[in-house]
Amino acid sequence: MSIREFDVLVLGGGPAGTAAATLLAQRSHRVALVRPINTPAGALAESIPPSARRLLSELGVLKATDAAGFFPNSGNSVWWAGNEKRSENFGVDGKGYHVDRTGFERVLVSAAEAIGASVLIGMSARKAVESEKGWKITCEAEDGGMVEIRASWVLDATGRHGFLARDVREADRSTTTLAITRRFEKPAGWDEITANHTLVESYEDGWAWSVPLSDTLRCFTVMADQRHAALEGRDVNEMLRGELAKTTHLASMLDHVNAEGDSWACSSSLYHARRYSRPGLLLVGDAGSFIDPLSSYGVKKALASGWLAGIVAHTALVDAPMTEVALEFFDDRERSVYQSYRHRSAEFFEEAASAYGHPYWTTRAEAARAAAGAISAPDDEEWLEDPAGTHVPADIVRAAHERIRSIESLDALSNPDLRVIKRPAIRSQRIVMKRHLTNDAYRNGMRYVRGVDLLTLVELAPQYAEVPNMWNAYNERETPVSLPDFLVGLSTAFAAGLLMHRDK
Length: 504
Known about the structure:
By secondary structure, the chain is α+β, with helices and mostly antiparallel strands. The protein folds into 3 domains: 2-70 and 94-170 and 271-322, FAD/NAD(P)-binding domain, CATH 3.50.50; 178-267, D-Amino Acid Oxidase, Chain A, domain 2; 382-501, no CATH class. 34% of the residues lie in helices and 30% in strands. The chain has 14 helices and 27 strands. The strands form 7 sheets. Strands 1, 2, 8, 9, 10, 11, 19 and 20 form an 8-stranded mixed β-sheet that branches. The longest helix has 34 residues, at 323-356. It is globular, with a radius of gyration of 24 Å. Residues 376-388 have low confidence and may be disordered.
């Protein structure tokens, strides 16, 4: 058996694993990425929202992703709980992607290898031994050859398989979900209005979605529950046809189509880890938790988790005293992400439960609400600047913005109960202790919103009566931000009570 040594071993070459390996290679660490040649997820088609572009840019793979020629993602169209179609169209600058998972992973793996990661394709981890000196992971190649990889840190990004993660995961026992998918080609092409949209439709005891891969090729997937749907004794193709027949709009799209390959099924039941990190080990992406695909944010969640895992491992390798702080930071973030997505899905499940009254929906609604608790879903971009930041409700921020627009002079001053505390944040791809603003309403503190440094903003606000002048002054002191982002930061500062109008 050959032996190889690295600083970090990343198990799994999906979006989470490649994101972590890429960041660590960028920071000049010796990192190995181990993945089999083919993975079950490779057959999937997935939607990537425009907000993921920022992550791809952070990882240095945005240009390669744009150049890969993936089908554009211009929005979503949803028929939910018997209501009329609801559509969201992304802006002209908000280009997302519809990808086949195999092609997307190929782009990410190539980028990781180009930046310096050692990519070991065709290998699977078989045995793990941990000691005070680190890890020894025995991997088997497809030809039967064996290699022992030694590393100080292991990042388990093996998805649902969870090579190391499965021992510390908890399944949501209240629901079971089977995803059944197949590709269909329509030579005449699909409806031009929704040709570039992800389509979602609910029905009495399940829901279905469709992702386009080209003008003529679409992937259709149903999310069925084995306890409620009549699946026993039927082959996978029959299962898919039977479930799609329960829909109205997606079923109507399947006239004059040709099936491409057979249907494919996999478990999509939910789970989360009791803890996502400890010294020497991080559970990354779907290895740590799995969210309902309803949000269309699965790939983004994986990229974000991998990016943050790379930052945490890098911090531990170059600044050992910060290891425990970095691990807590990662654990808190992964837990809050899972809870926030459960919070979002609960609203959809409750709407469907009210319309259909079926156990499929009522059990999911109850489980999602219980798992999410009272957490509010964070802004999609907020975590990039301040992953552990406290979320300010959007309606309060909008009200603060309208107040700013309606007055002639800002006339701002800092709130008397404003305090400064130190807590972890991300800077230059490391976890560091930074000053944060806090008050009685937001005791955990906050520092960055849309790239705007609230500490600087609060210092400047009392000096300027007009927003444009304050914005110019801010951009002279800090990394320049756009006026819309600056207004979001300023509105958030008022909404959170960091700033107040003098006449209040």
